[in-house]
Write a structure and sequence with these properties.
alpha+beta, two-stranded antiparallel ribbon, 5 strands
Length: about 110
């Protein structure tokens, strides 16, 4: 078992996931997710239901990257950090291609 902190960046650090608004003294900055950011948010939440040997405890989506805290707790599955990047890539590619093809996203 273990807890992992991951940062995953968008290719070329393009700001595809959203934008930050509210930078004045009285407004706390917040992120407004783009359509891609909303899709990513949905799939991050689906990962908890799909995978019993890990849990995404906390995450934050930024304009060009995400921060994720993953808890791995099932010893029957040999959790490797190298498992996460291809998984996130697979999920996001599926979602983005479905969106761009005009087919509904899961």
């Amino acid at each position: 078992p273990g807890v992992y902190f991951l940062t995953i960046c968008v290719k070329d650090r393009k700001q595809l996931l959203g934008k930050i608004v509210g930078c004045c003294d009285f407004d706390a900055p917040q992120i407004i997710l783009s359509e891609y950011g909303v899709i990513l948010d949905k799939y991050i939440n689906l990962m908890n239901a799909k995978y019993s040997h890990m849990k995404i405890d906390k995450y934050v989506i930024m304009p060009n990257h995400i921060h994720v805290i993953i808890v791995a707790f099932n010893l029957r599955h040999r959790f490797k950090i190298s498992f996460i990047k291809p998984l996130v890539q697979k999920i996001t590619h599926q979602a983005f291609y479905r969106k761009s093809d005009g087919v509904g996203v899961l």
